[in-house]
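stuck on this fold:
=====
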Amino acid sequence: MWISKRNESKRHFRFFFLTLNHESLASLYRNNFALMHHHKYSLSELENMIPWEREIYLNLLINYLNEEKKRREQNQ
């Protein structure tokens, strides 16, 4: 019984380690700061996000910022 629980938690750790492996600790803090400072997310909101949920929000935000940049360039 205890062995299966321990193995299960190791699998979850391994899964999250692999999914977050591409982002360095420095980029994590940099992204958190940018989201809190410029886009009014709270630190608790960011920390409570599931890793793939955070990745989706970051990608949506990057796409939005790129579209806004293109729109401003077209208006000038």
